[in-house]
């Protein structure tokens, strides 16, 4: 790992540190080195997977984020696989990358087949892009059910389609909040 990466501490395991560095890169303006750092993080997490280093739902979740930022179909497939494993181990579905990775994978696979990015369909409605400074959402395949949206803490399309960026964000935040409340009720500590 590069010197810029978060140094090891006793409180955090290596995969959590890699996740923190990945998220820090997303909070700053992307630079020409971000893809290089993403690649190094992905390599290290792949090594750790090969060593069987991950045991907890949190570790699988953190690892999924590293692959979600990959640039090829196989990376996003790995993100989906790891996120599903985190959920299987008890990670809250609404806090997982399952719907985002699933949608991104759908889009990547269509783009590989020649479909223009803006026309590539998604299932859950998690992927967007910017056109002339405005947020646009990739089209939906319309097969998603209300039960799936509730499980993953996602709004119904009519709650966000056609809204500005703030309206879209508010719809997603509201749906996550509802899912968190339901999770807390169904899974008391």
- Low-confidence parts, pLDDT < 50 over ≥5 residues? 1-11
Biggest sheet, in brief? 2 strands, antiparallel
Q: What structural class do helix, strand and pairing data support?
A: mainly alpha
Shape: globular
User: What integer value in Å does the Rg equal?
Assistant: 17 Å
Number of helices: 7
Terminal Cα span: 37 Å
In sequence order, what are the helices and strands, one letter per element?
A: HHHHHEEHH
Beta-strand percent range? under 5%
Share of residues in helices: 40-55%
Spatially, the strands of the biggest sheet line up as: 1-2
- Total number of beta strands: 2
Mean pLDDT: 88
Please supply descriptive tags for the structure shown above.
189 residues; mainly alpha; two-stranded antiparallel ribbon; 2 strands; 54% helix
Could you explain the architecture of this structure?
With 189 residues, the protein is mainly α. 32% of the residues are buried. The protein is globular. It has seven helices and two strands; from the N terminus they run αααααββαα. It has a domain at 1-91. It is 54% helix and 4% strand. It has helices at residues 14-27, 34-50, 57-68, 73-88, 98-112, 146-151, 165-186; strands spanning 128-131, 134-137.
SSE blueprint:
Layout: H1 14-27, H2 34-50, H3 57-68, H4 73-88, H5 98-112, E1 128-131, E2 134-137, H6 146-151, H7 165-186
Antiparallel strand pairs: 1-2
Helix pairs in contact: 1-2, 1-3, 3-4, 4-5
């Amino acid at each position: 790992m590069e010197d810029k990466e978060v140094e090891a501490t006793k409180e955090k395991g290596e995969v959590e540190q890699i996740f923190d560095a990945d998220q820090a890169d997303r909070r700053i303006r992307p630079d020409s080195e971000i893809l290089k750092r993403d690649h190094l993080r992905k390599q290290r997490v792949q090594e750790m997977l090969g060593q069987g280093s991950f045991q907890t739902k949190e570790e699988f979740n953190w690892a999924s984020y590293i692959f979600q930022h990959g640039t090829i179909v196989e990376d996003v497939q790995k993100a989906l696989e790891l996120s599903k494993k985190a959920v299987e181990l008890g990670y809250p579905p609404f806090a997982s990358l399952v719907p985002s990775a699933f949608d991104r994978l759908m889009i990547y696979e269509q783009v590989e087949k020649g479909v223009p990015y803006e026309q590539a369909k998604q299932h859950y409605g998690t992927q967007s892009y910017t056109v002339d400074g405005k947020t646009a959402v990739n089209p939906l395949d319309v097969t998603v059910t209300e039960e799936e949206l509730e499980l993953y803490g996602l709004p119904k399309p009519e709650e966000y389609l056609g809204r500005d960026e703030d309206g879209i964000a508010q719809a997603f935040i509201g749906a996550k909040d509802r899912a968190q409340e339901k999770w807390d009720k169904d899974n008391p500590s």
